[in-house]
Amino acid sequence: RFMIKGGLAGAAVYVAYDQGLLGSGTEGAEALKKARETLPPAIQEWTNYLGWEIPAPPKIDFSISNYWNKGVHKVMSALSVAPTRACEYTVEGWKYVKDLVK
Question: Which residue of 3, 19, 32, 97 lies most exposed, with the fewest beta carbons within 10 A?
Answer without folding.
Answer: 3
